[in-house]
């Protein structure tokens, strides 16, 4: 044994002397750590070696060997030791630790004690430990107190559940050590230990929660002491404790929230402190707005918090990714997404205006960036104020200071991403400003302006063509001659230009491709790999723009380069390559099938990568463990992004290649199914999208007959379709029921909506599955779904005894509340987005189930109707009217029982102040009159009065078309209740429809019916009708459905055969091209 210890001791010295970690691992594992005797040997070195560094390293390794193997398993080395040896080690540890002079070594030895305790305490084999620690904590010797507190701190990592029964005593003990009069170390460790204690507080234990809350001022005092003494590292560890307290189910901080906000606001604003501690303090504020938003709202802390962030945002900015400036802006962004826009936007804009007029360019920069971060949560709110915002942006883009112009570019890019149509409409004033900035010599402004242009291109539509020549010249010049740091932005912008231009990008293709292929082959450095990934993504956009025939000669080479890139060490490059595969498959369709044997195994490999097999360092202490955790999270996020793009690609490739992909379906569909439980929300979203694509592809491949609404299925489908539908619907519905991320739920609802519209009810297989989905959607509409229940914000505190009335108090639209209707109605845009997705899905479910949806609509209708109140936003009212109109169509005659509730609402919508609400209400009134068997003629006069201005006033929306369609449906239902001589001229005047071709159906059905009835007005105006019919028969081809087109041609042919001379005279009066259209269609 002595020889064994001597050799081990010598090896540990070599490790400290510089032996590589990998070599140390191999030697130690093979020669020493394979047998239980390594534990007493390491203990001997850790507890008696004269060199503190060797003792420390031995203790670190000892902890690992004690930990190895599950308790009681064959791999458990500690359990294989005899009782005498184990007791000797435990006794020696307690004897030596109190005399160990080195702090780091004491900490390492403490962790050994903790690890042994995890295997001994539960079996009551170390009863003296807790008594020893209690004595240490109350010792007159400060170092003993530090040992006692630190070991207790580490014990919570290993045996917290055993200490659970001692929580009350520990709170009393830590209350004393938190105010230790002599040792800052004792106070700081106590603070950190209290962070561990909070994890084990029983939410129902009133007394313990009350005691813990009384300790919070003392915990803040310890952080302040660290700051005052310049010990910012310890202060950061203290702030981390409060970060954890924020997210606990047990409401320990709620009553102390004002004091916490004040403390961390003051700390974050203190310029005398280091950047790390300041950003940690500000980050606490950000998470407070997420985790305790209701409390912050009730305490009126929104405006003070926003005001406190602006001076920080106006400081000199550091390059650090998490500088105080950046985190302060993140707080504003978080508030924009967490709180109703009316609570955040006006307050923020007040500061924006003030700071924008400052002589300090840093203040102007802060103002512009604040607008940029608002848009994520206030996009709809900002949409109606776009003109004022663009005045601000244009001013920033022309500011004399570079930092303000750069901020202006970022702001424009953010607005363009969220409000692409609105920003695109102002291209004439914005593009010249961006072009000017791209010509500036400084690389930072070149990069920022190119990024802004990249985002702006998304909303240009056909307007991009007028800029394309100048745009491409500038981009190619920057690519060839610009700073290397700009090239990534330039290449991404080229991809966006191709996306926007489509077929018009062809003239630039041949000149551009050699450059792009060169970039796609770069691999000398990490920057090269990043640029290669951007180029790979951009080339896929170019391929989609120019089409497969033009791109085909380049396909073999770019595929070869993409395969080579997969074997380089870059998660981001693989992510870009998988996106590339998906797009190229979409472009080349079945032709891409030749690459499946090379592509699909790579996708499967990435999907199956382990995210837990991370090799950390062989040696190290507490700091190294923290670094290891950060590295693991970074790796985990990179791998999750790779899996997300691989999952997306699988769905797109199957949809494109169809039969060629069938050999891979079984394996890949199981992978995607497993991803529904992945811990990264983006991977779950990708899995849902691809699973629905798999189902849709099987459905299309089966060449199904058109579906009929209702369950059981009225139109049989192929067994393969049934099987995939069962798997997908069950998996996705189960995920939805347990999902905690609102965006995942919203996107999944949208996917369900689209697939129901495409394939009808067969995705849900049977009524039981339909019930499960309906129940989930109902929870969301009621705002009681798991993703909407904020367990932290919705906890109601009993301010008398400091204990919650209930753990969770979800807001229920049916329940009474102390808040006003207006307060209830004002929600964050993210919450509104989720509700809208749910309501849209309700409409799609009605279309899929038909009249049988009536029993479900009885529950949905009153809940959704609440969103139509005048106090709700116009977008909410529009959502309700649009959804109820679609439900009406889906229910058919089944809507009759709901007519009494729906008709007054629709009529009210016709008088709404919002144009879009009125337009949708016109459609809703029409389809309700057409489908309901109730007699609604008593509403006709009022409805016609409200529809008249919609017909007579030109609109960029569908108001004119919908109003005409509504009147046509009213005529079809009750022609005698309509003054035809007055309404028909108004309808004919609007024809042919220019926007909503769906409304052509009732309008032409109405006209044909009246013509068959020899309506005098229509017969007198046949030449005008022929002119309208000719335009309706002209491109675009989707103006008329086949049946309506056939009826129109039948009518024209009747005129031609039975009224030949009159028909020829009318043809002669038409424009020659219109006459030719009619003649060619009648041949």
TrEMBL record:
HEAT repeat ranges?
A: 902-940
Main localization is cytoplasm
Query: What's one GO BP annotation on this UniProt entry?
Result: protein import into nucleus
Nucleus among keywords: yes
Tell me where the transmembrane regions lie: none
Record-linked Pfam families: IBN_N (PF03810), TOR1L1_N (PF24714), TPR_IMB1 (PF25574), TPR_IPO5 (PF25780)
- The biased composition feature labelled Polar residues covers 809-819
Q: Where is the Importin N-terminal domain?
A: 24-99
- One Gene Ontology cellular component annotation? cytoplasm
Q: Where in the cell is it found?
A: Cytoplasm; Nucleus
Keywords attached to this entry: Cytoplasm, Nucleus, Protein transport, Repeat, Transport
Task: Note whether Cytoplasm occurs among the keywords.
Answer: yes
Q: Molecular function terms in GO for this entry?
A: small GTPase binding
The UniProt annotation puts the region (Disordered) at 799-823
Protein name as it appears in the record: Importin N-terminal domain-containing protein
